[in-house]
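Action item from last week, closing it out:
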Amino acid sequence: MAATVLETPAWPSSYDGEAKPRKGFFTDTTVCIGCKACEVACKEWNQIPDSPKGFSGHSLDNTLDLGANTWRHVAFIEQKVPVDVGGGAGFVEAATRGGLANEGIATYQEGDGIRFLMSSDVCKHCTEAACLEVCPTGALFRTEFGTVVVQQDVCNGCGYCVPACPFGVLDQREDDGRVWKCTLCYDRLKDDKEPACAQACPTNSIQFGDLDELRQRAEKRLTRLREAGQDQARLYLADEDDGVGGAGAFFLLLDEPEVYGLPPDPVDTRRDLGEVWAAAGAAALALGAGLAAAVFGGKR
């Protein structure tokens, strides 16, 4: 069976010449200091309700994850440095080989035997956005900037988009059931302003701009890091050939995506729908044939 062809019909063709250059975020986690200024700015600008969760006891992170009331989440990953990290092994690989050492390696995020990896997570504004495609009311739409936004006055709370997202970004508010998430500050974009989180970031870890230019900037940054000895540095969701066609929000990571709580190989959840329905149809036909054979064959 031929592979399912996925498209993004809402942008730019549907804007009939009014589409703007695609905007996005490049999050350079290597300079994130975990200040959470982006979280505060996001809540203040978008008037998002408080969502106190307290400290988990496992991390300095008091937000824990993205949700309907947390559109930006600064993840804190705190690890003892495995003995093999100096030899070029990733943390996941080194941990499976066993042994933790109380010896740090010399970067500002890595010292005294503890490695702090911090990253401000957000909706990815995927190129192939399953959430948008499964929405039955049109509440989710793609803007003229190529971003994905929820219209709360149209959302009926069906929740179809929640399991469709391969990143677990979408969430429903308990009080009304509607879905809420990052809009990439669509209201600010229309006024030629950068999103609140990017404006508030003191280290320029969150960089906003034209997506093509951001990807070029990220490649140069990645090259410099690898030349400086950060062999595990990598770009995440910057490749248009990945399972979601690349994303409007992509990241420079210092380790494997799983370490940051990100899926290693995210795929548009609609990709296999054709094969699933074909298999279901074949199974239904086989079942029908079996039942017919049993009924009519038993009358002989």
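Closing note: Residues 1-9, 96-108, 274-278 have pLDDT under 50 and may be disordered.
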